[in-house]
Specification:
The complex is a heterotrimer of chains A (293), B (261) and C (275). Chain A is mainly alpha-helical. A two-stranded antiparallel ribbon of chain A has the order 1-4. In chain A, helix 1 packs antiparallel against helix 9, helix 3 crosses helix 9 and helix 6 runs antiparallel to helix 9. The C terminus of chain A is likely disordered. Helices cover 40% and strands 24% of the residues of chain B. In chain B, helix 8 links the parallel strand 7 and strand 8. The termini of chain B are far apart. The C terminus of chain B is likely disordered. By secondary structure, chain C is mainly alpha-helical. In chain C, 75% of the residues lie in helices and 1% in strands. Chain C has 13 helices and 2 strands, in the order ααααβααααβααααα. A two-stranded antiparallel ribbon of chain C has the order 1-2. The longest helix of chain C has 27 residues. In chain C, 57% of the residues are buried. The C terminus of chain C is likely disordered. Chains in contact: A-B, A-C, B-C. At the A-C interface, helix 4, helix 10 and helix 12 of A face helix 4, helix 9 and helix 12 of C.
């Protein structure tokens, strides 16, 4: 069922892309890795669980967006603001990593270490339609629609609005942007808010697809987004999307064609191959290639 | 005169920017060559390309007969080219002594041997320390040998950079705007420091904006503008060359006003 | 009981040191869990299936790890440090998945039959590795590593082949982690691939960060604190990730160099070489 696998892969890939976009935004603007990102992604699923339990799971969308965004702001404040210098990259990565661990642990304590069922009963999540002998689920379409809408919105925001111009200026050169009067801190905060908000929504979408919120998903699913970012090109939004979709499909195909669990390695092997072939990834990012001095 | 450095038709292009746009240059044994030019003329790009920090887009660089155009940074360093940096790049959290000791090629070229030497009689280690102290004393920093590099005053930091460059026993020394940010006294001291360094190397190239330093030290001067060489010769002739004056002062030079109309 | 705790402290110390060695050259590796796994499984195969004694098996596993590290590190290190971080994460995942699918060593079910490691063995290993690191810290190579860490381009212009230095550090770190893994396996008798997952790699990095990144004693402190303290304070054991996570976050905010400051100690010690 090739078409079925490909569509499956595209859906997963879209979620990968959404998380990778967040990583790559922060890299583009700060040139640092935000390791709390995968856990914010995980938490989006938890938000889904909570909303499904107390109100309607559809409320989870705005709630996840906001909660994720706030977590992004918190991460920026704690793990990134202090560490501005060149060799602070590792410190920021480690600090955000530790924050991520705290988040996972708290999640374990409150909701347990096992995946929790969201209790999604609505037909939307279970049913679908069939085209050409392949079954598509409504939820898959919803995921694709939402992810593409978000990515389009982000693209338009970055390329058309003045806020987007400011982001691109800071990505190009924070020093120059500051000289031009751009509030670099405000831009950084916006980037963190948006990237984490998207991650949380992605986590929610995954929870809707699988029906469960899994506290471990950050380090498995979420961390792959790092590789996807590298494949797509650090700081390149379009690259993150394309790489995400490509890897999603590639993974689905590897799982399908007999390699079984080895498919887990796909994304990492792909990253290694891409890095060997083209150092900077597939695309060049929001700022052009650097000359190291 | 023996040629230490031969640069031919050198070009370095970044994206669309021609940082170096066809430069021919010679550096001869025993001389100090001054390199001047307005900001953006390509002086630092020139040093960076010669020393291997940038890869040349076109052209060739020969050092004592060896083609170094495509060599890696560390290979160029090992051949005997040393430099200082416009914005002072010391190993800030290391001490003065350590900064200089790292340059000692006995160890830097063969790191493995240096691990084993830890267990060798301390005579070997003492010799390394003594050698480093020699350069440190030469540059007047003996009192600060155990201080961290980032605790030094600006002038001292410059001297440390020079000491570190010399400690590698280079054949050629390239100084990138060493007088930047210095007052008159410090500059005068710097002239002395460079004169002290002179016998240690075969040739020195000195990039500078400060004309007093250039005049005091240079045997010859090369002037650059927009990535090209616009004058080359003894100081008197270069510094009064019309192209050089135009590059620094602009086109409204009273002497040429009549001709420009 | 106490012997067990000391054993694990020793293992964690060895692993922390393996991270430290890579950090010496300025690179952060999240692959030590993978090299630990390779060390454990490789030595295990040699002892269980081929009947070799523990020490040569462990050493052979260490050499294998170092070799693999050089293969992996070569493309990654020539680019930027950030890529090494990502590649090492990938390596950890790939090794684990690879082992789960490797029927020869039991796959997901695990691999057993290893024995022969106890507290004494670990103590010996710790002493040997510690002595080697000590020797390193008073040798010129320490300065070279410091320079590479501080400013690798300038270090390179002084004639240091920084690519080789970084690669060597990565390989030695892998070898040390492999020894830790070998000893771990031969104590536990039975291991499974998920004993060596990304969380292990993350934790050993955090031991070093907690104790201090800048000298060889930091990992001792970090490993000791994170292994022993939870045994004595229940709350630490239950909330280990949260407490340590927060401690590290706070620490990084106020003292990015860790609890111990290295330059002070090694600088004082190098006084002895002069005059």
């Amino acid at each position: 069922m090739l078409l079925g696998q490909i569509s499956n892969g595209l859906v997963i890939g879209a979620m990968y892309a959404l998380v990778a976009i967040g990583f790559t935004l922060v890299i583009g603007v700060l040139d640092k890795l935000n390791f709390a990102h995968p856990e914010v992604f995980m938490f989006g699923g938890v938000v889904g669980f909570v909303c499904a339990a107390y109100t309607s799971v559809w409320w989870a969308f705005p709630v996840a967006f906001v909660v994720g965004g706030l977590m992004g702001l918190l991460t920026e404040f704690i793990s990134f603001r202090r560490f501005q210098s060149e060799d602070a990259k590792i410190t920021a990565a480690l600090s955000s990593l530790s924050l991520g661990l705290v988040l996972v642990d708290i999640t374990h304590k409150v909701w347990g270490s096992e995946p929790v069922d969201l209790g999604l009963t609505s037909g939307v999540f279970k049913e679908g339609f069939t085209i050409a002998g392949v079954k598509f689920l409504w939820v898959q379409l919803i995921i694709l629609a939402i992810t593409f809408a978000l990515m389009l919105a982000l693209h338009l925001a970055v390329s058309r609005t003045s806020a987007g111009r400011r982001i691109r200026a800071v990505a190009e050169s924070p020093a120059n942007a500051a000289l031009l009067g751009i509030d670099v801190r405000r831009v950084t905060q916006t980037v963190f808010f948006v990237s984490s908000a998207l991650a949380a929504v992605a986590g929610l979408l995954l929870a809707l697809r699988t029906g469960v919120a899994n506290p471990e998903i950050g380090l498995t699913f979420g961390l792959k987004a790092v590789a996807i970012m590298a494949i797509g090109g650090m700081g390149d939004l379009r690259g993150a999307v394309i790489a995400g979709l490509l890897i999603g499909v590639l993974e689905a195909l590897t799982f399908q064609f007999g390699l079984g669990r080895l498919g887990e390695m796909t994304v990492w092997v792909a990253m290694l191959i891409v890095l060997l072939w083209r150092r900077g990834g597939l695309f060049s990012g929001m700022h052009a290639g650097e000359q190291r001095v | 005169m023996t040629s230490v450095l031969e640069v031919r038709s050198l070009r370095k292009i970044f994206g669309g920017v021609k940082a170096i746009d066809g430069i021919d240059l010679d550096l001869f044994e025993g001389e100090i060559l001054g390199i001047i030019g307005p900001n953006g003329a390509g002086k630092t790009a020139l040093i960076n390309t010669i020393t291997g920090f940038y890869r040349a887009t076109e052209g060739s660089i020969r050092f004592r007969g060896v083609d170094i155009t495509a060599l890696a940074l560390h290979q160029i360093g090992r051949l005997g080219i040393a430099r200082t940096f416009q914005n002072i790049r010391l190993f800030r959290r290391m001490t003065v002594l350590e900064n200089v000791m790292v340059a000692n090629k006995t160890f830097s070229v063969a790191p493995l041997r240096s691990v084993l030497s830890a267990w060798l009689p301390s005579g070997r280690r003492r010799a390394a320390v003594d050698e480093a102290m020699e350069f440190i004393t030469l540059m007047g920093l003996a009192a600060k040998a155990d201080h961290r590099a980032d605790s030094l005053a600006y002038g001292e930091a410059r001297r440390l950079e020079i000491a570190r460059a010399l400690a590698g026993r280079p054949q050629m020394l390239l100084l990138d705007e060493p007088a930047a940010g210095m007052n008159e006294t410090e500059t005068a001291q710097l002239v002395e420091d460079i004169r002290t360094a002179r016998p240690r190397v075969k040739a020195i190239a000195l990039i500078e904006h400060d004309m007093s330093l250039i005049r005091a030290l240079s045997d010859r001067i090369v002037a650059l503008d927009y990535g090209r060489k616009i004058a080359d010769g003894v100081p008197e002739s270069v510094l009064s060359h019309p192209d050089v004056r135009r590059a620094y002062l602009g086109d409204d030079e009273p002497a040429t006003a009549g001709a420009a109309a | 009981m106490i012997a067990d705790q000391l054993f694990f402290t020793g293992i964690n110390l060895i692993l922390a040191w393996s991270v430290y060695v890579v950090l010496l050259a300025g690179n952060l590796s999240f692959a030590q869990g993978a090299f630990m796994a390779i060390g454990c499984y490789a030595s295990g195969v040699l002892t269980v299936k081929l009947g070799l004694p523990l020490v040569p098996a462990a050493l052979a596993a260490a050499v294998l790890s170092a070799f693999l590290a050089m293969l992996i590190g070569w493309p990654a290190l020539r680019v930027r440090g950030i890529y090494l971080i990502m590649v090492t994460i990938g390596v950890t995942f790939c090794v684990r998945v690879g082992l789960e699918n490797f029927k020869f060593v039991g796959g997901v079910q695990g691999f057993g039959g290893m024995m022969g490691a106890d507290l004494t063995t670990v103590m010996v290993a710790v002493t040997v590795i510690g002595a080697a690191l000590w020797g390193l810290s008073i040798s010129p190579l320490q300065r070279i590593l410091d320079a590479v860490r501080e400013d690798d381009r300038v270090a390179e212009s002084l004639g240091i082949n920084t690519a080789w230095v970084k690669l060597a550090a990565f390989a030695v770190g892998a070898a040390i982690a492999a020894v830790g893994g070998a000893l771990y396996g031969h104590f536990m008798n039975f291991v499974r691939p998920d004993n060596f997952d990304i969380l292990v790699s993350i934790y050993v990095v955090l031991y070093v960060i907690l104790g201090g990144v800048n000298n060889m004693f930091g990992p001792v402190l970090g490993a000791a604190i994170m292994t022993l303290l939870p045994e004595y304070f229940r709350v630490l054991a239950e909330w280990r990730p949260t407490i340590f996570g927060l401690v590290i976050v706070v620490m990084l905010l106020f003292r990015p160099e860790g609890l111990l400051s290295f330059r002070v100690i090694t600088a004082k010690l190098s006084q002895g070489t002069r005059r």
